[in-house]
Specification:
Elements: H1 7-15, H2 18-24, H3 30-44, H4 48-60, H5 63-74, H6 82-86, H7 88-91, H8 96-106, H9 109-122
């Protein structure tokens, strides 16, 4: 249940925080408020469902699978995969520069260089 057809509540929905809204309309449940949030988000964003599915997928990944997904799929290196076609519009929001900046901020240069050297030297 939602309250998207109640113009008074919708006016306040956009003006008040969730906490203020639920205090003002004590008879509206949090579930109704969240259902309305979902409907509003879907109306504002045609890719809402794909984004939510994408986020669920990301949350399901761990360790090496997550790293592979970040590097291969999010950077577009695996651009013809079925998964990338499915999430095409969501992946458009992730820029390669943002990923490399994130990695640079969170990985030590020395560790990366040592890893590369070990991989190159170990392949002889």
């Amino acid at each position: 249940m939602d309250f998207t057809t109640d113009w008074e509540k919708m006016r306040d929905f956009f003006k008040l925080t969730q906490e203020e809204f639920l205090e003002t309309y004590e008879y509206v449940s949090e579930e109704e408020y969240l259902a309305t949030c979902k409907i509003v988000a879907q109306a504002d964003n045609p890719n809402y469902e794909a984004e939510q599915e994408f986020i669920k997928h990301v949350d399901s990944l761990e360790g090496r699978d997550l790293m592979y997904f970040l590097i291969q799929d999010c950077m577009g290196l695996n651009s013809n995969s079925d998964q990338n076609l499915k999430y095409y519009y969501v992946l458009q929001n992730i820029e390669g520069d943002a990923i490399t900046a994130f990695l640079a901020d969170n990985l030590n240069d020395r560790l990366v260089k040592n890893f590369i050297k070990e991989e190159v030297n170990g392949k002889r």
